[in-house]
Amino acid sequence: MKKIPSLASQYYRWLSTVFISFTLLISALFISFLVVPMAQRAATDLAGLIVLSAQTWSELPPEARPAFRNELHINHELELHPAKRYAATDDLHPPFIYLVEQALAAKIPNASHLLKERRGDEVWYWVNVPTGSDVIAIAFPQDRYDSQPLEILAAGLLIGIFVSWVLARWISKRIAEPIEKLSNAISKVGQGNSVAPIQEFGPKEIAALIQHFNLMTQQVQDLIATRTHLLAGISHDLRTPLTRMLLSLELMRIKPDAPLIERVEKDVHHMNQLISQVLDLSRGLGQEPAQNLNTQQFMQALADEYSPKTQHISLHVQDGVLHAPPIALGRAITNLLENALRYAPGKPIELHVEMDSSKVRIGVLDNGPGVPESQLSLILEPFQRLETSRSPLTGGSGLGLSIVSELCKANTWAFEVSNRPNGGLQAWISIFFRT
Questions:
Q1: Which of 11, 123, 165, 187 is a plausible cystine mate for 142, CB 3.0–4.6 Å?
Q2: Distance between CA 251 and CA 292 in Å, rounded?
Q3: What are the two backbone dihedrals, phi and then psi, of residue 87, each rounded to the nearest 5 degrees?
Q4: What is the CATH number of the domain that holds 227?
């Protein structure tokens, strides 16, 4: 199986190639447009000085020539001697010497090659310069203009390549680091482990990806916690009626009794109701096609389902058309009405529908005892009940508002619960119009 390179190694190769290519390009431009022109100008100046010195020498009287020769040696590092006879050799010279030869060839007809002479540790170059009927040999040391450009350039290139390598390695690690952390965290989540939120850093896109992953991880952990809580609540709430049923069955073995049979039937009904509610919650109350609903007719039909208690439900409905899934919306409103009837028995309940240009608000308002402010957020969680008896006759199953909350999440509705100023609880569902 072919080994797949890591993101860091890929970026390292790409960045190294780019940086080194850029270094070579800059070096080539530096040589072409700066080093070579400057060297050519220096070679031209030296060739001009050599030719001018030879012409001046030939024009001076003999008694002035020693002083002129001494001045050239001190101020310009040039030496004058009688012409030398030599043949061209194949010795390799520094690049600057070839430029001097080219400059001399442009100024001296039939210019000869430079003669290389070693004087201990020094290297001198001679050239014969014709001056009228005479020929003069002029010499200059190699270190006069020998700045060793090739060595300097090679050192610069090596330093540039090393810096490019270090930068490429550092940048590639910086780019790959958040991805590697994200990959490790995803692997842990895939194994069922919980992970701490990853610090959001790196480029904008990667930081956004980490933010979404942290949010997703938190949602998964909340889902697992909810599932655990849900299973614990189911087991607890089923154990009570099952215990009563077992006790009733034992008693009926001794003596059949109609009240005991009725009690078992109630427990079975309660268990069936609890299981139905749990199934609704665990299904995520899936997507349902939306329909156009007349608000007045729809709310009246829901209120009519509670005909024995209709005297307690008053409608305050703004007539209009609502686009929503009827089963999901009906279930949500029914749960709110049942919650209000349970906790505010015998007191008036209000069913409101308000509409504006952007949304429809549906509210169920009761006149019960309300909920302590510190527990308002808790009553939306499964099996959270303020009444501690856990009896279906007084406290319900604790799933009604949880189902409403899940229905609203599944259909992108807003759901809020708060206490009324004069007592009681109000629950509002906001359905926004889609443009």
A1: 123
A2: 55
A3: -110, 155
A4: 1.10.287
Q: Are residues 229 and 293 in the same domain?
A: no
Q: Which two tokens stand for residue 155?
A: 């050192």
Whether residue 314 sits in one domain with residue 258: no
- Nearest Cα to Cα of residue 118 among 87, 139, 104: 139
Question: Is the domain of 318 the same as that of 401?
Answer: yes
Q: Which of 245, 266, 282 is the last residue in one of the domains?
A: 282
Instruction: Transcribe 86-108 into DSSP letters.
Output: ---------HHHHHHHHHHHHHS
Entry pTM: 0.47
Contact in structure between 281 and 317 (CB atoms under 8 Å) = no
CA nearest neighbour of 369 among 411, 327, 419: 419
Token pair, residue 148, equals: 């060793």
Sequence-distant (≥ 6) Cβ neighbours of residue 302 within 8 angstroms: 330, 333, 334, 337, 351
Residue-wise pLDDT for 364-409, tens only, equals 999 888 888 877 776 777 656 555 443 444 445 566 787 788 788 8
Q: Which of 129, 152, 175 is the last residue of a domain?
A: 152
DSSP code of 193?
Answer: -
Q: Which of 288, 42, 236 is nearest to 144 (CA)?
A: 42
**Helix (H) / strand (E) containing 315:** strand 313-317
> Distance between CA atoms of 411 and 431, rounded to whole angstroms?
9
pLDDT digits (tens, 9 = 90+) for 109-165: 777 778 888 888 888 888 888 887 788 888 888 877 655 666 777 787 788 888 888
**Does 148 share its domain with 65?**
yes
